[in-house]
């Protein structure tokens, strides 16, 4: 039985062209980019080319890109590095209640270390209110971190409006763009952000590589010690094959972003229309008009998310109950809890389907029909 993979928000299959680039690099470019001989310079040249492409993809400068081991490290570096480096100015941090665990757990660590963290609420669509943020902004606020788009329900946050609000404040503005990168247009100058996190494995690149955009002049302290790689901002020998694969994924993404956006919108609509045609009772969590096109979070009344996921898996459909980073947890989604309250039935009956590279309309039609059959069976 062929599996229909509908969990692209968790991770994406590596593009064949990315694989070829990485294999070629592993076979031929084994030098250390910090070495001064020819073999080392060859590796350095590939890293520099990738850094330039990464910068181009978000309207940044070459030296504003810091390669990391992924989105989690980029988030950690942004928050911890900024917090400790700017502690003399204040100890207040603002984030949201629907952030990825890479942000929320880092904020918990910062609280243990004496920082005061405010977790902003969201409305029922998963969106932050600008006026609420404004009310919580203080003179001693040194950092604001709001994700560009949510990984569980897809809701896009008003990043430009937040940046405009902060333009007259000294707080540094970070956004976790891991889920948005590759589908939404990103120009850091237009967005007005100071720090931005990205991960390769969300755009059909390899796992274990990402980058942090750090605007020139932003003060932060590295929390990894060793060599002087990444201009002394992130120690450790560069993952050259990963960086090369990331660069190829970025190259493909830049050519296909708009096409993919509309393609995934069509697949999402087909899935919804098929459920409607089969007479299934369901509600979409999030905001279809103001959300990422590849994420579809659905509440199925009178079902249980664990039963749904097991039955979907038995039918060859890979879906999720939320963030892959909390997939093994018993607790309900913190995102849905923030949106609907701790006692909402949606916390226990919602499934996330997410679309991406390699899927066909036939796949989506079949997956939606099987989902409908499962719902009917579980609610009969």
Automatic annotation (TrEMBL):
Its cofactor is pyridoxal 5'-phosphate. Belongs to the class-V pyridoxal-phosphate-dependent aminotransferase family. NifS/IscS subfamily. The keyword Hydrolase does not apply. NCBIfam families: PRK02948.1. Keywords: Iron, Iron-sulfur, Metal-binding, Pyridoxal phosphate, Transferase. GO terms for molecular function: cysteine desulfurase activity; iron-sulfur cluster binding; metal ion binding. Pfam families: Aminotran_5 (PF00266). This is cysteine desulfurase.
């Amino acid at each position: 039985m062929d599996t229909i993979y509908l969990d692209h928000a968790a991770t994406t299959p590596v593009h064949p062209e990315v694989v070829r680039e990485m294999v070629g690099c592993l076979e031929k470019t084994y030098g250390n980019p910090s070495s001064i001989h020819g073999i080392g310079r060859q590796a350095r040249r590939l890293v520099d080319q990738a850094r330039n492409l990464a910068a181009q993809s978000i309207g940044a400068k070459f030296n504003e890109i810091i390669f990391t081991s992924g989105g989690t490290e980029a988030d950690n570096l942004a928050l911890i590095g900024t917090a400790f480096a700017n502690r003399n100015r204040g100890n207040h941090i603002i984030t949201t209640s629907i952030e990825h665990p890479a942000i929320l757990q880092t904020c918990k660590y910062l609280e243990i270390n004496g920082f005061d963290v405010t977790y902003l609420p969201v409305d029922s669509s998963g969106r932050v209110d600008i006026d609420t943020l404004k009310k919580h902004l203080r003179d001693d606020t040194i950092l604001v971190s709001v994700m560009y788009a949510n990984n569980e329900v897809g809701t896009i946050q008003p990043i430009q409006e937040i940046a405009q609000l902060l333009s007259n404040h000294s707080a540094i503005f970070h956004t976790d763009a891991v889920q948005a990168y590759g589908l939404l247009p990103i120009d850091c100058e237009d967005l007005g952000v100071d720090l931005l996190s990205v991960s390769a494995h969300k755009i059909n690149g390899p796992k274990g590589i990402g980058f942090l955009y750090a605007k020139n002049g932003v003060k932060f302290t590295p929390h990894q010690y060793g060599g002087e790689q990444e201009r002394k901002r992130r120690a450790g020998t560069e993952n050259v094959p990963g960086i090369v694969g990331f660069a190829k994924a970025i190259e493909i993404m830049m050519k296909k972003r708009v096409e993919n956006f509309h393609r995934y919108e069509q697949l999402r609509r087909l899935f919804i229309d098929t459920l409607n045609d089969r007479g299934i009772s369901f509600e979409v969590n999030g905001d279809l008009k103001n959300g990422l096109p590849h994420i579809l979070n659905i509440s199925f009344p009178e079902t249980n998310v664990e039963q749904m996921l097991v039955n979907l898996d038995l039918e060859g459909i890979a879906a999720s109950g939320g963030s892959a980073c909390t997939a093994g947890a018993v607790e309900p989604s913190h995102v849905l809890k923030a949106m609907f309250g701790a006692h909402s039935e949606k916390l226990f009956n919602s499934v996330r389907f997410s679309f991406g590279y390699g899927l066909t309309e036939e796949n989506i039609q079949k997956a939606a029909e099987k989902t409908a059959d499962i719902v009917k069976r579980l609610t009969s």
